[in-house]
Amino acid sequence: MKRPDPLTLAALAPLSWGTSYLVLGQLHPLGPVTVAMLRALLAGLLLLLLVRALPRGAWWWKSLLLGALNFGLFFSTLFLSASRLSGGVAATLGAVGPLLIIVFNLVALRRRPTRHTLTAALLGLLGVALLVLGPGARLDTWGVIAGLVSVVAASGGYLLSSAWGTPPATSMLSVTAWQLTWGGLLLLPVALLSEGVPTMPTGAQWPLLAYMVVITTALAYALWFRGIQHSSPVQVSLLTRLSPATAIVTDLLQGRTLSAVQWSGLLLIALSFLPERRPTVPAHPEIS
């Protein structure tokens, strides 16, 4: 039986992230930064128990930098942006990520994107904008800046993850555990300063928090970084448009109706996933 492609498995990550918006609303009064801290730290510790491996040598500072970019800085600025902007504007800013990685690759590595990749990134951005932007969208200078910083942090983290790979005789799961733990530790003082000491979750909230830690963080990011390792940051980042699409589909299942513009956005996102057409090579005629 053929094993699933790492890029296909990586798509499960943004699909799970799209459900986290629904779960987050059920964790009140835990604040979003506190939930992000608990997600990263508990998921990192869980994976550390599984891999039983700590960084060595240069990987202490490498994992710290990756944890700061992919979780510490990304989560904190993402939630700051979401608190000052409408959800649609924040999601649209996040959809800029694939284009930013394409620019990084072009400028730093001189890697020109294919026409198909560039088209997919633009279709995804436009689709997300049509899907989530509404007439009540509001812009806030600091919110926009924070949103762009979160995109730059995540994009830089994905590129470094791809460039550094893993140390010898070490799995990507170990590297994921290290950066999740670092990210959670970096978010700890931010959560305490911004939201205070968290209250103990209720009995009904523990399964939801476990879902956030195990499924949408530990498993999701393990698959996500594995996809980056076996594919490319550009290809994996293009999958992020599945997150707002999943959130909208979840709302549809709960009875929400969409406008014609939003259906157009979903269609554009679906079109952005069409595979690239490869030129067919004509078969050589048999020589009799």
Tags for this entry?
288 residues; mainly alpha; 13 helices; globular; disordered C terminus
Low-pLDDT regions: 283-288
Q: Which percent band covers the strand fraction?
A: under 5%
Q: Percentage of helical residues?
A: over 70%
The average pLDDT value, as a whole number, equals 83
Taken together, the total number of domains comes to 1
Radius of gyration: 20 Å
Task: Give the end-to-end Cα distance, rounded to a whole number of Å.
Answer: 39 Å
The tally of strands reads 0
Task: Write the H/E string, N to C.
Answer: HHHHHHHHHHHHH
Q: Figure out the total of helices.
A: 13
Largest sheet data: none
Q: Categorize the overall geometry.
A: globular
- Structural class from helices and strands? mainly alpha
Describe it.
It contains 13 helices and no strands. It is mostly helical and 288 residues long. It is globular, with a radius of gyration of 20 Å. Residues 283-288 have low confidence and may be disordered.
